[in-house]
Amino acid sequence: MPAAAPAQPVAERTPFFSRPGALLGAALVVGVVGGFLGGYLGQLAGSAGTAGSASATSSPTGTVDSPAGGSCNAETVAATVLPSIVTINVVSEAGGGVGTGSIIRDDGYILTNNHVVADAANGASIVVIFSNGQQIPATLVGRSPQADIAVVKVNADSKLPTVAIGDSDTVTVGQPVVALGAPLGLSGSVTAGIVSALGRDVPVPADDGTTAVLAGAIQTDAAINPGNSGGALVDCSGAQIGVNSAIATVPNASGVSGGGSVGIGFSVPVNLAITLAEQLIETGKVSYPYFGMQVVVIPAEVAAKFNTEPGLFVEGVAPGGPADAAGLQDGDIITALDGQPAIDAAVLTRIKLTKKVGDTVEIDYLRGAEPHSTTLTLSEAP
What we know:
mainly beta, Pdz3 Domain, 382 residues
């Protein structure tokens, strides 16, 4: 019999490692998480020896080679970067979870994922564990659910070690990388691999019921698992180039996905993450460019039924807004934005995350059966 067609991979947030109970004394016992690695029991100790230990994945010589040439000494990278990587515990009456963050300012600002700390917006507490085992309460500075980025802050007695910030625009496919974090609650863990692809727009569910987009995400085969969320993806110099945020999993016969790393992980490019983090630090929120329209997705099967093109149906246009000024009207069907097919709402989210007020967006649309093009200038939201 012919082999069955392989199941399509499903992108999902790298869940922070959920666990029942609360932080007890110096040690956190991580409970079993069904659907991730059932039956696995890990212990996150608050002592300096355990919390600061590194579990490095590398070749016998301590280097990670890439098909494109070049290599990383994972041991050297780990020694350089781990002091600036923290484990983030979110604790509530219902339980909590474990994620990761990187210290981006020596006065205590820490970059992480929104889905790691979103519960703090509803009263959960945050405790940060440093590589030396020290535990300090943290506060939520601000978050961007749409980009899955957040910032928390601790008040430390002295300046903290910070991660070097790289340039994600210079990352190349095939270059070696190292991921650092707390997979399954195991602090100070290090994995290594290469950049598998660039420019992935990865839609993932947001905690507010909307869709977050990892815009222009870096794909890597460095092992990323639940608990790595918010951690650093770094280059061979130890400079952060991404925020580890999501993994792809293969659904089973019932369509249910789960499990750990299958070698397909996604990181928010650090250039975008830092831009958003700076806004959060300065104002506590992110201001997104404004389109001035409401749209509804027309799936391909619906478009075929009504003999039209798939795209974004313009349901409403704000008078005097950017869409109105660009000539768009209710009932138009947007087929492309900046040359990219408008097949889902995520394309709008990507543009809002990667463009700023005053930037322009080229729009292809249908009015009836007639194709048109226009240029929309993004503005500030009213």
